[in-house]
Known about the structure:
Blueprint: H1 2-35, H2 38-56, H3 64-72, H4 74-92, H5 95-106, H6 108-116, H7 122-133, H8 135-171
Helix pairs in contact: 1-4, 1-5, 2-4, 2-8, 3-8, 4-8, 5-6, 6-7, 7-8
Amino acid sequence: MHHFKKFIVCFLFIPLVFTAQESNYVKDIADYLDNNASMKQYEYAYDALLKMLGSSYPKNDRNAQGWEYLDNGKEKALDEIKKKLIPIYMANFTHDEIKHMSAFYASETGLQLINDRSKLTETQKEELITFYNSTTGQKIINKQEVLVKEIGMVSESWSRDLYETSLSLLQYE
């Protein structure tokens, strides 16, 4: 009976450990998507869509609620795409690789790469080469085709849904 109690305690505790580790993994991927400027691209896409729709469907009394929803909906839309991207990164990179990638993009070199690649110093260029020659960097290069395909499909679906939702809110209000 004593062994059975130990087994139950261990059995009940293990899922909590895995869940905590997995939630850290998810959070680290989410942070990575913020650090590497992926989310800035989706934010730009959202803003560009609203700007485009603004010229076709100017705000008026009939579509005011739709515009209010869209004006306030950017964060929700960005959360949705992030939730769709996270499983792609989980399937292709280990937690340690994500941490390494995130640390690189949070570094001075990573930030300069995002902000203006043409202004990388010689030292930063060397750091970039070192990063891409690392095991993680090589994996990024090797996974590029898969990532482009999978992220492209998710992005296209997100954009299409966002566009269709936006149109339905503005056309029929």
